[in-house]
Structure formats: structure tokens, C-alpha cells
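Q: Entry one of two.
A:
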Amino acid sequence: MRTVLFFCGFLLLFSCAEKVVEEPENLIPKDKMTEILYDLAVLNSTVSVNRMAFEKRGIEVMPYLYEKHGIDSIQFVSSDLYYASIPLEYESIYTTIVERLEKEVKDIEDVRKQKNDSIVKSKVSDSLSKQPRELKLPVPSKK
């Protein structure tokens, strides 16, 4: 019984190390794949907010991405499938994307806050400049 358990454990250990998907010949490098998936996330969110603008200009997300990054659909799909078959690699790609998106959201919020603060300051200074000034008359001297 002990031998059977040892054999099953041995098979399980080595079967986990087996690659599920072989590396494609034209694999997109990890950093470029991260850029592509980042652009895809941004474009998809933009399309979901303003689909009509994309339709009016005849912009389709995937053909645009293929042209921008100099890849084709087969290369993208095979590379995406390969990275997805390696969960830790895929997770690191998406962690990088999420961190970059969060940083950009924070930067945008900082700029918006600065603009709002400057608007408030300008309104306060305008309202102060419009207040009537107190007239100071010279005090007559007693002679």
C-alpha cells in the first residue's frame, strides 16, 4: 500500500511540471504582452463609456491593437493562451497592469484635485477683491 501511494505521489509531482501548452514559435515577449493587454483594458473601458465615438470613426479595438503593436491575431491568441497556461506568469502580467492602472487613476485624481483647489482659490481671491474697501480718512491733527 505504501508503495502504491509513493508511486501515485511521484506521478502527481511530475505530471504537474508538464507543460500544458507548448511555447509558440512567434511568442510575444512578456513585457510587450503586458503592454498589449494594458492597451486592451484601456480601450475596452473607453469603448464601454463612449461606443458611438468609436463607431463614428470606424475604430475597432482588436485591429487597432494588432496594427499598433505589429502583431497578428494568431500570434496574439497563441501567446495569450501560452501565458494563460502558466498561471504565475499570467498573474504577474495582470498584477503589473492593475498596478499601472491604479497609478494612472491616482495621477488623474491628483491633477483633478489640483485644478479644483486652484479654482476654489481663484474664486476666493475674486470674491475678496470684489469686497468694498474700507476708506481710511486721515485723522486731523490737533493744533
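Q: Entry two of two.
A:
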Amino acid sequence: MGALKVGGLGEFLREQRRGAQLSLRQLAEAAGVSNPYLSQIERGLRKPSAEILQQLAKALRISAETLYVQAGILDARERDELEVPAAILADPSISERQKQVLIQIYESFRKENTAAAGAEQEAAPEDGREAAHPADSRITEQATGKTTTT
């Protein structure tokens, strides 16, 4: 059986495991996989499922999305789109309503920036400063319930 090229997943897992100061056996046990199977993943002989990657990520205390990117399941941009809302939802210091508002603001910014990417570059001042996006104040007003006059 030839080695699979899994975007450096095996090497990345080995580095993460060593960084966490876990032996192969300890990580395999914590992730609920066999020691030989984990060894094969690290050597690039096996390509694990998304479920196995999730178990490994949990055992290593890293995001599953990071492993999905390494395995070629997600691209880095998709990971970023998932990690920001996940971080917001995990924050115990803000209310559920505040979490939802932050996620809505984040998604609005992403949507508007994607739609207006070309227009913003053309409208940028010649001195190199970034032009303020007209939606910035509107979205802030929606999130806070306060209106501002300019």
C-alpha cells in the first residue's frame, strides 16, 4: 500500500501530539482509535474520516476545522467562516442575544465585503487610507439600537 498525500496531515498531527506532550498510545486512547490506526494516519498510510478527525481534534484540544483544512476537507477560508461564529458562541461572558447580534454583524460584514470588494478598491482615497464603508454605521446602529447623525 503506497503512502497517501493528505496535505501533510500526518506530519501536522504528529507535531500537535508532540506539542501536547502525548504519546501515540495516549492520543489514540483519548481519541478512541486504535494505536496502529493512529500510527498509520501519522505516516500518511490512512486517510481518516471527518468523524475521526473531530475525535483527534478534541483529544488534542484544537479545532476540528484546523484538521479538516490539513486533510483537504475544508479550505482555509471556509475554516475562518466557521471558527469566528464558533468562538463567539463559546464565549461565556456575553448573553445569547449578544452572541446572535455579533454573528449577524460578522455575517453582514462578510457578505457586503464580498459583494463590494471591487467597488471598495476603486473608491479608496489616493493617499492610501481606507475609505469608510457606508454600511459600517448602519450595521452598528442595528446592533446597538442607537442611531447616529452625521
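A: Comment on entry two: Confidence is low (pLDDT under 50) at residues 1-7. The chain has nine helices and no strands.
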